[in-house]
Amino acid sequence: MHRHHAGLAGGRRRSRSRDCRADRPGGLDAGLPGHLIRLGAWPHPRQQCRVQAVRPGRCRRGARSLACRDRCRARVSPTGAAVVRRSAFCGLGRARADRLRPAGKLILAGAACWCAPAPAAVVPPLARLLKVPTRLAAPRGIALTFDDGPHPQGTPAVLEILERAGARATFFLVTEQVERWPDVAAEIAAAGHEIGCHGHRHLSQLRRTPASLADDLRYSTDVLADVTGRTPRLYRPPYGIFSAGGLAIVRRRGFLPMLWSRWGRDWSARATSTSIIRAAGTSLRPSDVVLLHDSDAYSSPASWRRTVSALPAIVAAAVDTGEPLVSVSQST
Q1: Where are the domains of the chain?
Q2: What is each CA distance from 88 to 42, 130, 149, in whole angstroms?
Q3: Which of 17, 39, 145, 298 has its CA 20 to 30 A from that of 135?
Q4: Considering the entire predicted model, what is its pTM?
């Protein structure tokens, strides 16, 4: 690897070529002015650490790789600083990267725009900027909303509690569940509660194309109209996440996008009836929209049982405010 120089080791040559002392061939100050040091394809990292390693693998295989390997040399200046001379072939990869860099920036910019509305459910200023409601339009009333249903056990239990309280609520239904339990969906409508659309499949909008979102919305609207006899005007996205394209499609089809101002986090496996009451039923205010779930189809198993256990206390807390329990559309 290294050309011997009599002054490097005081006239005594050492057999180890990987000596990294400063005054030896592998050191920082090897003192080889004017000598060319050819490096192998993959030199040991402790050899000539001030000289950048030559990696012909970055070039194309074959002739270019051989030319890159043969022409790339390191020259040590009299001051000990290393300068690497690269062949013309070594710049091909960098030139290609330079050409691709604008395309990468465009892709990142497009992804950022597509995902921009996603945090609106947990960032109220963003929801206001996008004009996505999180509260009722009227200054009076509190709206209880239930997502992910219908469910053969959870939904009837919720309906019974609401009936005892004389309350109206809004159910955002997933139509793949409506097709499984059409009688339960029809029971919600027969009890006088509002029907909202939660899509046909419970998939994040960020993972879907505009065409698939439009098809999903069209199909779910038709199913809800056939089963419940009502055409929904409210839409809430799965997971509460809008994409830029999804929000535009929802509005283009005449839906009112709807998020929430309070939520019980009842979908979590760590949730308890006490934690749900604390999150959804404490310090309620007029025009609050409360998010709960009457189904465990897309959450932790049996989560609806905790919701049903907490619901009477949440209803009582809302009644104590003096505000009526209304559906979302009753306030518009």
Answers
A1: 1-115, 119-331
A2: 20, 51, 64
A3: 298
A4: 0.70
> How far apart are the C-alpha atoms of 155 and 263, rounded to whole Å?
18
Q: How far apart are CA 14 and CA 26, in angstroms?
A: 12
**CATH code for the part of the protein at 119-331:** 3.20.20.370
- Please, which residues have CB within 8 angstroms of residue 10's CB and are 6 or more apart in sequence? none
**55 — alpha (psi -120 to 50), left (phi > 0) or beta?**
beta
Q: Rounded to an integer, what distance in angstroms lies between the CA atom of residue 158 and that of residue 293?
A: 10
Confidence of residue 112 (pLDDT cuts 50, 70, 90): confident
DSSP codes of every residue in 22-48: TTSTTSTT---TT-EE---SS--TTSS
With CA atoms as reference, report the closest residue to 260 among 196, 206, 320, 304: 196
CB 149 within 8 A of CB 179: no
Give CA–CA dist 91/85, Å, rounded.
11
Q: What is the DSSP string of 306-322?
A: HHHHHHHHHHHHHHHTT
d(CA 139, CA 326): 12
**Predicted confidence band of residue 39 (pLDDT cuts 50, 70, 90):** low
Confirm if 255 and 233 have CB atoms less than 8 A apart.
Answer: yes
CA torsion through residues 174, 162, 132, 124, sign: negative
Lowest-pLDDT choice from 91-100, 151-160, 290-299, 320-329: 91-100
Among all chains, which residue has been given the structure tokens 């809430």? Answer: 236
Each residue's pLDDT tens digit, 143-161:
999 999 999 999 999 999 9
